[in-house]
């Protein structure tokens, strides 16, 4: 059976909203990691057969097939094409899947996967809302769809409502969420202080480290914040941060590894994606993980490290409750609550961090999953070589 190998993985630092990357064109963020990827791998860029990039809200500077724009902005060969993927927050994880599937099918040998997002320039819907303002059906992309309304009625369809539903269903208190958020910051700060991210980051100008982790955050400060939705429990403190950044990986076949003298660092062991309730929206990592483990015959005891996106604290806490996973294996260097969540780039950022942490710790299997708009979740399992 053909194999798909990860040869290289690199990312920018994750910039804070209105931070050091906020004025960088998203194509230039993507171009930066693509240039670094080519330089670090030593691959002939003309041998790349496609560039698959994730991006959400492809309007303004993110429009026009930004995967192609990023490649050209990096000064790389014009004959290499690019395609942009939107599976919401999982867009660049899906980009990795499409790239790996091209290699596994035998139709491609070298494919670049990744993603870019500048949320400072292009805010997501609801991101600038004031606490207590209603978030309703009529504001989303579903508004006006008779078929949707016939199936789901006028229920609110947004991430904050979904996070509240998860917290209620799994009995997760605001205190539980705030303690989890504080742990995310502390883990991220430890990783920064110990230089754990240094190998995976290509500094952009003066921005050399992730800007999101807060050294001064406390449970008392979190408790003082107003909920996003009046009467709810979700606050900014237990939510992922609005962020800017990009990440990219090089995937190769066995033939490409031999022909180009590449060194594979991990093997793609499993790829899948599942869906469930689009109103609750963010709980699909639970059935998606169960599906992936069943298909592979692995258990969570076989998994050395897990990266599950911290879109909101209850997403991870509910997943932990359902799966019984060891919290000490999950998001060991913090997650999006501390490090940020540049939507279309996060999937590739998580995969980049997962690969490097497996190498640092000597682990074998790593599992990545994340919640996505529409009630979906990708799962990727890689094996370090």
Automatic annotation (TrEMBL):
Gene3D superfamilies: 3.40.47.10. It comes from the Bacteria. It is an enzyme of class 2 (transferase). One of its GO terms (molecular function) is acetyl-CoA C-acetyltransferase activity. Residues 263-384 form the Thiolase C-terminal domain. Residues 5-254 form the Thiolase N-terminal domain. Pfam families: Thiolase_C, Thiolase_N. Belongs to the thiolase-like superfamily. Thiolase family. This is Acetyl-CoA C-acetyltransferase.
């Amino acid at each position: 059976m053909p194999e798909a190998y990860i040869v290289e993985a690199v990312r920018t630092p994750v910039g804070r909203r209105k931070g050091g990357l906020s004025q960088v064109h998203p194509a230039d963020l993507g171009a930066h990691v693509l240039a670094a990827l080519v330089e670090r791998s030593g691959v002939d860029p003309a041998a790349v057969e496609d560039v698959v990039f994730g991006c959400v809200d492809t309007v303004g500077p993110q429009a026009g097939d930004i995967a192609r724009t990023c490649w050209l902005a990096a000064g790389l060969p014009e004959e290499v094409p690019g395609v942009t993927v939107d599976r919401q927050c999982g867009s660049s994880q899906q980009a990795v899947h499409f790239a790996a599937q091209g290699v596994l099918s035998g139709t491609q040998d070298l494919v670049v996967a990744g993603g870019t997002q500048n949320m400072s320039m292009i805010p997501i819907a609801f991101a600038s809302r004031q606490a207590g303002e209603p978030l309703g059906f009529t504001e989303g992309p579903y508004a006006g769809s008779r078929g949707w309304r016939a199936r789901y009625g006028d229920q609110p369809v947004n991430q904050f409502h979904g996070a509240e539903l998860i917290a209620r269903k799994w009995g997760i208190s605001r205190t539980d969420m705030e303690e989890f958020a504080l742990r995310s910051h502390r883990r991220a700060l430890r990783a920064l202080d110990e230089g754990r991210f240094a190998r995976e980051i290509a500094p952009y100008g003066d921005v050399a480290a992730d800007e999101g982790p807060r050294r001064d955050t406390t449970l008392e400060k979190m408790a003082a914040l107003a909920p996003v939705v009046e009467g709810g429990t979700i606050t900014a403190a237990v939510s992922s941060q609005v962020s800017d950044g990009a990440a990219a990986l090089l995937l190769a076949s066995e033939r490409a590894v031999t022909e180009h003298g590449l060194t594979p660092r991990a093997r793609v062991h499993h790829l899948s994606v599942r869906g469930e309730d689009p109103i609750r929206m963010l709980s699909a990592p639970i059935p998606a993980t169960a599906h992936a483990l069943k298909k592979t015959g692995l258990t969570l005891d076989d998994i050395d490290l897990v990266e599950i996106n911290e879109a909101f604290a209850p997403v991870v806490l509910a997943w932990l409750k359902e799966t019984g996973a060891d919290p000490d294996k999950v998001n060991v260097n913090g997650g999006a609550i501390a490090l940020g969540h540049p939507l279309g780039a996060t999937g590739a950022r998580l995969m980049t961090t997962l690969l490097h942490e497996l190498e640092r710790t000597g682990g074998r299997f790593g599992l990545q999953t994340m919640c996505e708009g529409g009630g979906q979740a990708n799962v990727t399992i890689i094996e370090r070589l």
